[in-house]
Amino acid sequence: MDTDLDVRPYEIAVSDAEVADLRDRLERTRWPAELTGTWERGTPVGYARGLAERWRTSFDWRAQEARLNRMPQFVALVDGQRIHGLHVRSSRPDATPLLLCHGYPTSFAEFARLAPLLAEPDDGPAFHVVAPSMPGYGLSTPLASYGWDIARTADAFDRVVRALGYDRYAVFGGDVGAGVAEQLCLEAGERVLASLVSTDPGAIATAYTPPTDHLTDAERERHASLVAARSEDFGYLQVQTTRPLSVAYGLTDSPAMQLTWIAEKFHEWTDPLHELPEDAVDGDDLLTLVSVSWFGRAGDGAANLLYEAAHAQQAWGGSHDRPQGMTAFGEEPLMRRILDPDEALPYWRERPRGGHFPALERPDDVATDVRAFLGAPALRPAL
User: Which residues form the Epoxide hydrolase N-terminal domain (predicted)?
Assistant: First the structure.
């Protein structure tokens, strides 16, 4: 147990002045001209104006703040960096400690619907849930220093979990959170009981895709089409992994930019069967995520973590003996062919619906997979 950290209970309490300032800024937004109503150049102006007006007028932040505060939260200081998150203990004495790691561009709020399902299930295994925001994301702000890459974040999360009283724990993560989960398997060793990561078709259409030499000619052609389809989706990444401060000014000063920056990713990365972001996830959940980023001034921190990850020497690819599983959302037969070609993972589950944010899109499915793999008796020694 890490007794050096000062971990304290926390409640969100955004001031009335901050809420009024947000509404005032939204009302005074200077909008670009609407040249096209489609998404290929970014979030369409007409859609953005409608979503911003909902955020300004009918979205009830106080109700969402109260909903989040119904779940116990903590704040800790790790190497000078504030780390905030959920800590939802189960009432079950046999519950397994579980660390949830979000990805870009969300925060602890991504797990607000999932955490209660895991902590107090109707049946099956239960979990003590710890869901921190990455340094610089959500309310783990402000970013105190440079150097917060994946490895340093994993070490901080390991220290927080131990300070909360859990010497051994399981891990679930997606996107950047999957990188943190892998790093924990490498560095924390036997403290990690097992790791489950979520993925989607976008994971095999990036520069970080695992080797594809084993694919057939037809499969290579299909993979090339997936890569081509995603080729214009990485402007956000190019900017933030090279000049994060340049975009941070807009994300910090303009709620309209923070809103459209996140909404675009929800349009691009959620289940493609849904036309709009709020068709894929609850509209209040989407605006809650954006609000947390806005009130936490997280735009620059999120950008800098991507920069740090791109410029750090990672230990990924190293070997470890921690049990690993994967749950894949979105119908794409090449996911397992590329990510688990030898079908060696002890747990693999493919789900035809869902996308990059399954804890918001398909929380019941995620809870089922977490219980099926991370709750298995063989992975739960006496804790």
Answer: 7-111
